[in-house]
Amino acid sequence: MKSSFLSSEDIKISNEFKRNGYIIRNVADKLSLDFIQSKFIKLIKKNYKFEKSTSDLRVLNFIHKKIKKNKINEFRLKVIDEINKDENCKYYYYKATKPYLEAIAGNELVMQKKINLSIQLPGDESSLLAVHSDVWSGDSPFEVVVWLPLVNCYKTKSMYILPANLINQFNKKISKKNYQDSEKVFQLIKKNIKWIKINYGQVLIFNQSLPHGNRINKELETRWSLNCRFKNIFSPYGDKKIGEFFEPITLRAASELGLKYKLPKMR
Length: 267
Fold this sequence. Notes:
The structure is a single chain. The protein has helices at about 10-20, 30-45, 55-60, 70-85, 85-105, 165-175, 180-190, 255-260; strands at about 20-25, 110, 115-120, 145-150, 160, 195, 200-205, 210-215, 225-230, 245-250. By secondary structure, it is α+β, with helices and mostly antiparallel strands. The relative contact order is 0.20.
């Protein structure tokens, strides 16, 4: 008897995700990604002037020539607030990665209520995310992060992750010594981390229980990346609950009816 009813492609994605701790694929719907990127371009051009011939990727890659480092977080919050007001952006975010999410987390999903945005200017020390695992701070190990770059990301213009096959070795080392300083944790894994190379038009889905983070962007271009968490609606939750942090997006009829069902009182 067949041991798994998953398709061969779903099995391939699942095995790669378990082996590496992440997958990188071309987005399932490029028009959805282009819609999201165009929203950012419009918002940027509302605030800063560019020549008409400037390509969208150049606008994003070289925004640091228009904005000061001490203004970047204020600008980031303003832009992402506008993006999150548009429900279409969340729908297209999901649509861009739908088949890969279903292969990894199932087809009854909850989605983080607000999409997050990272803008990392070259040489900017204020936009650093120290090495961490989301589970260490109360997230559920059943969550996955969908990471969408709006530009090509590579080397220090990207993020790093500790590959899944090294996590047991890491856990043994860290349990023997009390590491209070995140920089010491980074130095512990520095030689083993994987820097993610991903282009605009691709999507990264990673296991956020693995140590990950970023460093000072030493490249000549600005990083723009979006991230959002998804999980199966019926899998265990951590500190971030449904209704507070997550919202259901693909609840099926049988589940919806089952959740509402009340057994009649019998005499």
